[in-house]
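Quick one: structure for this chain?
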Amino acid sequence: MAYDYKTIVPYLLDWYDYNARILPWRENPKPYHVWISEIMLQQTRVEAVRGYFDRFINEIPSIDALAKVEDEKLLKLWEGLGYYNRARNLKKAAWQIVRDYGGELPADYNELLKLPGIGSYTAGAIASIAFQIPVAAVDGNVLRITKRIAGSFDDITKEKVKRELSEDLNRIIPKDRPGDFNQSLMDLGATVCLPNGKPLCQQCPLMHLCEAYHKDYIAQIPVKPPKKKRKIEQRTILLMEYQDKYLLHQRAAKGLLAGLWELPGIEEKLSSRKLRSILNDKGLEIASLKTLGEAKHIFSHIEWHMTGYYINLSHLTPEYIKENSFILADEEEIKHTYTLPSAFSPFLDQTIDKRLGNN
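Got it. Here's what it folds into:
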């Protein structure tokens, strides 16, 4: 028998009235603002999103502007948030909204689901917050809270479990405050019923209802299968400077970091001696070479273990640039025009960012 969650509603809303986080997209919950914030918040912490959201809305203030924005500008505004397909899907969805909905997000849960990049959680969040449609928004936070409340050992990675919970919450979501109800669960999961480490049960408005708390199951719930080990890839990253410009390479249109710019690299770990030999064999004339140390970057299923080098070239031929599909970009272009993933930040921060006076 499904757990009846109706008892949590008044406690959650009362708690939310006094503890809601102050967030820029909540101050002005236009449908466009809610949509952009929800896409940014996927797999990204609220603290990281605040600055990105303000900058994005200032530069791209409407759905029509989003549909028309140049790809390079869009990706540059997204630089550092990761998962760049989220940004590409925003533009695809904007085109569809302009074409099919007169430039306005549809005030309909099922229509929202038709848009690129919008799944059941995001559709529920937009529908409830922006349009006050009583539909649940179920993500990892909500699954964790509700399964602890119910004392349930269901595997929360299973689609059936998520679907059944959505149905349960849709039955009890308050019709007069659906957005507040969903946001109360978002905030509770972010600040009290924490995903990592010990939850702050003594601060929880639902503690007296929580089966996991009373039966001491908190550490065992929610249930998820163990994560697969990530594949580790060794890479040598090259910050190559020639006449105050730097070599950049554009990644393939498909695959990891598709279409983004990167520092040149070699898919193995090289010593400075071996690297110098390889570059000399390619006909490059090196004025200086120094190590930039090591760094690690974690993707969903892959870890890059990187060794970085700064290389000042005394000679570089147009043929070498063309053969390797490189471009030369100066510091300002790297800062303001070309989108480089945060994987390369440890090496850029030591050189280009320092000279530009950025933290």
